[in-house]
Amino acid sequence: MAETKFHIREVCHNPTDGDFILAAFDSALPHLASVGSGGQWGSTPFSERAEARQRAYDSISVSEASRLNQEGSEHGKLFIAEVEMNHESDLQGLSFRTDGHGKRFLSVGAAFVREKWWPGYVKAHDNTKSIVENANSEGVPYYVEILISDFRTGAARKGAGAVLLQEMKAYSISRGAKALYLDCWAGNNGNLVKFYTGQGFVKVADFLVEKPGSGGWPGSLLMVEF
Fold it and tell me: Which spans in the chain are helix H?
């Protein structure tokens, strides 16, 4: 089978990109439940979560402000992975755009990386707090806030996650970053952790986010040094 050729779009200023990100997260929930990873994100659609909606649309505004070098704005970059589709393909219900030459590009994945930003639960946890402090003092760390592919697109999305990670690594290096960090769910035998270590990341800490009425959310913090 031929390797999918991805087009990475870096100009993401349309609110429909936020709609796509939310739809992609929603599409992952049935898949995660089917492979024993339902505990990663639960069952409530992201499109129905106020915090998730805010995060999706904030990624657009932060990325656009950075692209335009707006004074005082925090720095971040949103990437959309696309695949060119022929005109016979049925794209009804999916996120796609048509360029000035009539070519159709199907959105299959999204990633958002931020400068010197950390999730609150990583900054506050005893197992990770010192790592955050050291990273901030030693250089300009970058953090992967969003990485998702759209399960509605089937085989077209295969490989998008790895390609988007490479884009974020290259971008972070171009910005002078010393390292790129991310965290992920560590449940279900650490299958997601294994994916990231396969992409060159190294696990630096495990942590547990306490959640009322449950055993908590087990996570791992990973990094790749430049």
Answer: 15-34, 50-67, 120-124, 129-138, 160-174, 187-197
